[in-house]
Amino acid sequence: MLELRGVSCSDLEAHTPDKRQIMCAGSFGQPVFTRGELASALSSYVARAAEKLRKQGSAAGGLMVFIRTNPFRPSDPQYSPAVTVPLTTASDDTPLLKRAALWTLDRIFQSDYRYAQAGVMLTNLQPRDTAQRHLFIEDNVDPGKRTALNAVIDQANRRYGRGSLKLASALDDKGWKMKQGKVSPNWTTVWADVPVAR
Question: How many domains does the chain have?
Fold first, then answer.
C-alpha cells in the first residue's frame, strides 16, 4: 500500500553487483558434425564471454565447455558432455581462454554425432587487479602486451560492430551460424527498419 502512496519501501541498487559467472552459448543453424566447426563456434563464444569479463573488470579462474546434440530428435543418438577445467592463473585474456576451451573440446568431441548447440561458461570470477599469478609457471607472453591487444580488439568491436576483429579460429562460421531469417526488425535502432505510415 505504501508504494501506491509514493513511499519507497525498498532501496534501488546504486551499483549492479558483478556477475559470478559469464556464459555464451548458441544453437546452430544446421547440424554440425566436425571438430573444426565446433572449434570455430567455441572460439566465437569465448571471445564474446572474455569481452564481457573485461568489461566488468574481472578474471576467470575456471572455464566450462559443453556441446550438445538435439534432444528434440529422439531418433538421433544423444550426447551432451560438459567439462569444467580450472585455469592455472585467473585470466581475462581471449587467446588464453580460447586455448583452454579448445583443449577441453579435444577431450569431449566424438565424431559420430549431429551437434546442435555449444557453449562456454567462465567461472570462479574474481577482480582482475587482485588475481593471483602462479609462482612456478613462467609465462613467456608479456601481460602488458596481451592487455593492450585485448583492449584494441574490444575498442574496434565497439566502434565498428561485434565481430569486426575476431580470432582466426572463429572465422569459419558458415556451417554453425544461427539462422536469423525470422528476426524482428530493429525499429528502435536502425533507420531503415523504422515503419513508415502512408
Answer: 1
pLDDT digits (tens, 9 = 90+) for 48-73: 999 999 999 999 999 999 999 999 99
Domain CATH for 57: 3.30.1490.100
Has residue 165 been placed in a domain? no
Q: How far is CA 69 from CA 52, 78, 105, 135, in A?
A: 27, 6, 14, 40
Q: Where in the sequence is the domain holding 97, given as residue range(s)?
A: 17-129
CA-to-CA dists, residue 51 to 101, 117, 127, angstroms = 15, 21, 15
User: Is residue 108 over pLDDT 60?
Assistant: yes
End-to-end CA distance of the chain: 46
Could you read off the pLDDT of 64-107 as tens digits, one per residue? 999 999 999 999 999 999 999 999 888 899 999 999 999 999 99
Task: Tell whether 76 is covered by a domain.
Answer: yes
- Give the per-residue pLDDT at 131: 62
- Cα–Cα distance between 63 and 101 in angstroms, integer? 7
Please state, in angstroms and rounded to a whole number, the distance separating the CA atoms of residues 98 and 147. 15
**Is 7 within a domain?**
no
Polymer length in residues for the chain:
198
Q: Do the domain assignments include residue 159? A: no
Contact 128, 92 (CB under 8 A): yes
